[in-house]
Amino acid sequence: MASPRITEAKGILAARLREIRNEASLTGRSLASRAGWHYSKVSKIEHASQMPNENDIRVWCRVCDAEEYVVDLIAAVRNIDSMYTEWRRLEATGLRHMQESFNPLYRETQQFRVFQHSAVPGLLQTAGYARAHLRTVIAFRGIPDDLEQAVRARLRHQEVLTSGGKRFMFIVGEQALRTPVCDAEEMSAQLARLAELTINMPQLSFGVIPARGRPALMPPENFWIYDDNQVRVDTIPGQYRIKTPTDVALYEKAFSALADAAVYGQAARDLINATADELRGT
């Protein structure tokens, strides 16, 4: 069964194609005739019972004299084809392989923009924090226990932070500093690590949205933007990869709004250190 988000994406694509046909003042039968298709194909595509392929999109736009929409519509088709992967398939052999599946993407990406509201992003986690977090995932999902291998794979990701030529922008909610993912000693080490990231790292910016801050919007999901062509959104059952240019641009706009609401440098360190003091009871 298709996920609700994929069904919704198919419906949006179908509606957009119908709109383009109507703007061209063509009936479904006339479009099909000019395209050299069976007359029922247009109806099936517009009712989302048949997915158009990339050539269908090109022909549809050519017949409707709307070729300026080809790039976005083909991106939408590709996005639907690859947008959703169930965690149970990625994690079938344990978390190490799932962690390693990100390696090619991390090597190829030059700019990372990451928003996480209530947890520290994996690229910034200490070993103790990563171990506690992945242990929870293994227990919750009931998957093979390869905890130590998964932790090592996650920490190896962090080599990209110093690989040269890449840029990283991380935004977290203040709740990420407070969520007790691990014990007090390990949380203190994690907070110290985050404080270090606020100084002397020209390739990386780390911002915190104060709990009393008022960003222009607060997205319901965490998201990672890779360069300007792909967004990853993690949900409980699976992972979405969003590649449609207009959708990616919307996430970029959301990230800019969140970045404007965050504090950096000394102000971020003050929040981090205050949280660490509370943790120590001082």
TrEMBL record:
InterPro entries tied to this protein: Cro/C1-type_HTH, DUF5753, Lambda_DNA-bd_dom_sf
Name of the molecule in the record: Transcriptional regulator with XRE-family HTH domain
Q: Name one Pfam family in it.
A: HTH_31
CDD domains referenced in this protein's UniProt entry, alphabetically: HTH_XRE
Q: Name one GO molecular function term.
A: DNA binding
Which residues does the UniProt record annotate as the domain HTH cro/C1-type?
17-70
